[in-house]
Amino acid sequence: MASLRVPVNLGPRSYSIAISSGDADGLAAFARQAVPKSNRALVVVDAAIPQHADLVERNLQAAGWQTRRVTIPSGEASKSTAELSRLWDVLADWPADRKTLVVAVGGGVIGDLAGFAAATYARGLPLLMVPTTLLSMVDSSVGGKTGINHPSGKNLIGAFHQPAAVWIDTAFLDTLPEREFLSGLAEVIKYGVILDADFFAYLEAHADAIRRRDADAIRRIVARSCELKAVVVEQDEREETGLRAILNYGHTFAHVFETIGGYGAWLHGEAVAAGMVCASRLAEKQGLISAELTERQRRLLARFDLPIAPKSEWPIDPMIAGMYRDKKTELGRLRFILPTKLGHVELRDDVPETAAREILQTAS
Amino acid sequence: MASLRVPVNLGPRSYSIAISSGDADGLAAFARQAVPKSNRALVVVDAAIPQHADLVERNLQAAGWQTRRVTIPSGEASKSTAELSRLWDVLADWPADRKTLVVAVGGGVIGDLAGFAAATYARGLPLLMVPTTLLSMVDSSVGGKTGINHPSGKNLIGAFHQPAAVWIDTAFLDTLPEREFLSGLAEVIKYGVILDADFFAYLEAHADAIRRRDADAIRRIVARSCELKAVVVEQDEREETGLRAILNYGHTFAHVFETIGGYGAWLHGEAVAAGMVCASRLAEKQGLISAELTERQRRLLARFDLPIAPKSEWPIDPMIAGMYRDKKTELGRLRFILPTKLGHVELRDDVPETAAREILQTAS
Ligand SMILES: NC(=O)c1ccc[n+]([C@@H]2O[C@H](COP(=O)([O-])OP(=O)(O)OC[C@H]3O[C@@H](n4cnc5c(N)ncnc54)[C@H](O)[C@@H]3O)[C@@H](O)[C@H]2O)c1
Ligand SMILES: NC(=O)c1ccc[n+]([C@@H]2O[C@H](COP(=O)([O-])OP(=O)(O)OC[C@H]3O[C@@H](n4cnc5c(N)ncnc54)[C@H](O)[C@@H]3O)[C@@H](O)[C@H]2O)c1
Ligand SMILES: [Zn+2]
Ligand SMILES: [Zn+2]
User: Fold this and answer.
1) What ipTM describes this predicted complex?
2) CATH classification of the domain holding B244
3) Which member of A188, B221, B251, B272 has the greatest number of CB atoms within 10 A?
4) Which of A89, A99, A157 to mutate to test the interface with B (most CBs of B within 10 A)?
């Protein structure tokens, strides 16, 4: 069974992503290579998946690590100062030192939280990401964004802290609910649209295998997604040049869908799916692409039962207002990432409000 | 009146330190150059020095900044999660964005706390250090270490976050109590011993002018101290190569003196003064230097009324035990930074416990 490696080249902060399926034993050797001198590991795990943490912990112990575990309640609410303090306390009580490895076993919530604890304890501990959701495998585990939420805003408190390594075992997905899995596919499709027409075509050609979670297909799409994200991150590690913004394709719409739908209406990836279709239709309207490109996205998303339009009952005005509050807007202009052809997007701030409004009206 | 500039060369994180005396007007132009697009500034200030914050705030406002101020109670206890959360809340309430400048007006406590808030809000805000104690001018404002305390340890929670600029106006020292001022001189002398024999000789030759806070002399020693710290930081930004450890000359002893003396017995610089004499005597004992070098340090420190030995009533055993707990020790060996000649030190882990014990016995 092929095990894949994706390098992330960030000079002294470079690291490697390993992608395998059912190779729990491989973890410890991989981690050992990334952090040769580490002998203690704090395993931070989502409460829903103790069995995956067992596997990780057993393997680290067999390789000579002394381990401790902290279990975090599932869900976004755990990206809090309370859970962060709990991690700091456990590290301080041990006490951890700069060689102590923090291991995040879970989805984006665990990765963001444990990653931020690693970023801020003793001015930085090595971090091993072990993502267990499709979204965290293809997105949140790569790139170094860590953080927690503040009552005033999501991910408002945080730091850039690149992991020492990322260990992806697609077998962890076996327990992932279908809806979470499909939602993660929206971000996978996004990579195809923004950066890689061939990859998009691969997804079209193998949609059935992907949907039934064929291990070879999953490894392949996870690896390619990581590769594409790595290329972007390598060129704009700290979101300074603006290049990293292309990862936000579909997200200006998605964020207002998530807000208006309220917690629990749509998963993030579902909102991104509908958001991409809206952005693509906006690009059509602006004369950037033909209707066919939107149609291909719509068809592919539909094969994974992902939404392709906002809900008809959502009122337009608050959504438009929300777009102006998006942190990417500046000086009262709407900003969108729009495709110009399959595999290429651009940041546009010349889209009139009327155009965005029309898209929302005819979509819903 | 000469205004000095010290560059800190850290690639994309490079910045400039300005050293002047009574040039409040210069601040805004200097800050504008460092952060051209910033239009909001959060001024974080020590409660003891509102007048200095007034000056800073007025000048920033005159240069077009919208400002808010947070006043922090004086003292080490403010390096806490409670004060950190308060800063996060004010930033989130505003709301701050990535162009919002955080301005730290105070000593090391304010710099460390405000710096850590800047490091962790929106994954990093620009930071302007405006140090108002001698220690913060020559040490804590330069180098990017930020953080807060944890019940289990000082500076345990933190991040590396280089400032965008450092504005040093020695006129702020006019209000600084004598003891705080003299304590800061211990770190200044340290730079001479570890890196620059000529600078040490300058301090000997100008001790009287320094003691009466002659502005030219103060600017000169502050600038040279910053330069020397910058050189070290440039070669070991994140304390990875071990080079940065030379800044800890005298500190293995100092830390146990601070602990055994308890809060408030000695200021940090006072402990460092006695610690340097002990380390120097240890170097003599190891045959690294002659007695004359220790004597020169002792004489210079005494001219500033700094302690040159631990208090005689302090018991030896707990101090030795404390040295083994020092975070620089590894595998049960004591580690010291020891001089080999004036202007040069080395990290030694071959010092027998008996030697350290003897120094403490004969010193006190
Ligand atoms: N840092 C980044 O660059 C980045 C990028 C995108 C998203 N994020 C963050 O990621 C978070 C969303 O990530 P997510 O979608 O993985 O959410 P999540 O971590 O909440 O996981 C989703 C759900 O799946 C469960 N789960 C996780 N792994 C499982 C498994 N193997 N089997 C069964 N159940 C499992 C969890 O308990 C949870 O209920 C958000 O907080 C978002 O802000 C961060
Ligand atoms: N980040 C680093 O690299 C670094 C390096 C060394 C020390 N530190 C930290 O710095 C702190 C010590 O710094 P410090 O010695 O500046 O202490 P401090 O900030 O507590 O200031 C000392 C005292 O002086 C008062 N004060 C400050 N400026 C004044 C002024 N101009 N006039 C009158 N009073 C004034 C304060 O209210 C306080 O009581 C410690 O927390 C230490 O951990 C950090
Ligand atoms: Zn997303
Ligand atoms: Zn010191």
Assistant:
1) 0.93
2) 1.20.1090.10
3) B272
4) A157
